[in-house]
Amino acid sequence: MKIIFDHQIFSYERYGGISRYFSQLMKQFQAYKNCDFDLSLKYSDNIYIETLENIAVKPFLNNIHFNKKPGILNKLNLQNSKGHLKDQGYDIFHPTFYNPYFLRHLRHKPFVLTVHDMITEIFPGMFPGQAKISIWKRILIQKASKIIAVSENTKKDIIRICNINEKKIEVIYHGSSLDLVMCKDVNPTQLPEKYLLFVGKRSFYKNFDHFIKAISYLLTMDNQLYLICAGGTQFTTNEKRLFKNLEITDKVFHFHVDDPFLASLYKNALAFVLPSLYEGFGLPVLEAFSCGCPAIISKTSSLKEVGGSAVIYLDPEDESDIRESIRKVIYDKNLKNILRQEGFERARKFTWEQTALNTIKIYREVYE
Questions:
Q1: 329 and 236, same structural domain?
Q2: What is the pLDDT of residue 155?
Q3: How many independent structural domains does the chain possess?
Q4: pLDDT category of residue 286 using cuts at 50, 70 and 90
Q5: How far apart are CA 113 and CA 362, in angstroms?
Q6: 147 falls in which pLDDT band (50, 70, 90)?
Q7: What is the pLDDT of residue 272?
Q8: pTM to 2 decimals?
Q9: Do 93 and 146 have their domain in common?
Q10: Which residue among 1, 198, 269, 320 has its CA within the 20 to 30 Å range from the CA of 289?
């Protein structure tokens, strides 16, 4: 049984949740003798690809970043993917994103689609530039041989929004790629002693502005408390203006991070906070668990599936509840220790090995 993954997400993401997911699948598959795969990718700057063995991918203008670069990479890689599909030397196709370009080239070969969330469909006003992607996603959901949803909540969203038979959808959870072993020594002068951690993009549904307003009081009242934002883009002009208005400009930092640095940030944080309005899964929660970081997360969407009883939950639309939930954790040493231990236990229930094994079961079902 041979699987082909295509170029899509690795053209557009240097790092991110979706490309991490597919790279982890391939990393696990490399250890299995009965699941061969190929990646139709020629050029990429994705950092996770670099960790895979025997994957011949060339960098493209490495360390040079500009707005049109992902689009150029996609065009270069698209022809390579079409060539792999036309050769028909595979059994199952697994696209890494939602462009349906491949449908005309499958020639009745099955394809499996992973749906990571339905956030653009739930909050269309927040994603005015992604209407086309939403249309593409709906087309592929209808035509896929099997759909993998990353949470029960996402499965329910797919069924409700796309009117799909639930038997076509299987839920397969993610794992965590981080742990305490990989923590990189960080120069103490780089980091404050006491800080909250926010990880990833800060787009509208991530609720970052609301979160900042909620914690500004804590940051101003505690001279030793700071906020570190890891990943995502540099702070925007509007974000900097907000920090200035709240008088917390010198209390908020942003870092671009690799995995060892990110693991270290989790390890040393007072708490990780995920105040999102909606999540398809919530991978950073598992990362926090795996690195011994107390987690404070929204009581919305899929997050209770991931957090279980190992977190403190907050109402993402209530500034007072955000602030008080955080205060409750960071000034209670005993509660922090309890959350750390429960987080370690919870993390053991989610592994990439299990993700890969369950995915292979889907492939076999489609193949047979």
A1: yes
A2: 98
A3: 2
A4: very high
A5: 11
A6: very high
A7: 98
A8: 0.94
A9: yes
A10: 320
Q: Which two tokens stand for residue 5?
A: 């993954």
Q: What amino acid occupies position 170?
A: E
Q: How confident is the model at residue 133 (pLDDT cuts 50, 70, 90)?
A: very high
Task: Give the C-alpha separation, 147 to 164, whole Å.
Answer: 10
Do 149 and 205 share a domain, yes or no?
no
Q: How far apart are CA 281 and CA 156, in angstroms?
A: 13
Rounded distance between C-alpha atoms, residue 150 and residue 194, angstroms: 33
Q: Which of helix, strand or coil describes residue 234? A: coil
**Same domain assignment for residues 198 and 300:** yes
pLDDT of residue 237: 96
| Residue range of the domain that includes 51 | 2-175+351-367
Q: Where are the alpha helices (DSSP H) in the chain?
A: 8-12, 17-29, 69-87, 119-122, 131-143, 152-162, 208-221, 237-245, 259-268, 283-290, 303-307, 319-330, 333-347, 352-367
Burial label for 267, CB within 10 Å (0-12, 13-18, 19+), is: buried
- Asked if 317 and 223 sit in the same domain, the reply is yes
Which residues neighbour 244 within 8 Å (Cβ) at sequence distance 6 or greater? none
Q: Domain holding 303: CATH number?
A: 3.40.50.2000
**Pair (166, 213) in one structural domain:** no
Give the pLDDT band of residue 187 (cuts 50, 70, 90).
Answer: low
Residues ≥6 apart with Cβ < 8 Å to 30: 52, 53, 54
CA–CA distance, 106 with 234 (Å, rounded to integer): 40
Average pLDDT over the chain reads 94
Q: Report phi then psi at 196, rounded to 5.
A: -95, 155
Residue type, position 270, single letter: L
CA 152 to chain centre: 16
Q: What is the CA radius of gyration of the chain?
A: 21
Residues 165 and 27 placed together within one structural domain of the fold: yes
Average pLDDT over residues 201-213: 94
Are residues 200 and 335 both part of a single domain?
yes
Could you tell me the CA-to-CA distances from 354 to 161, 175, 184, 292 in Å, in that order? Answer: 28, 8, 27, 21
Flag whether pLDDT at 119 surpasses 90: yes
Q: In 3D, which of 260, 206, 205 has the Cα closest to residue 229?
A: 206
Q: What is the DSSP string of 26-58?
A: HHHHTT-TT-EEEE--SB---TTGGGSTT---B
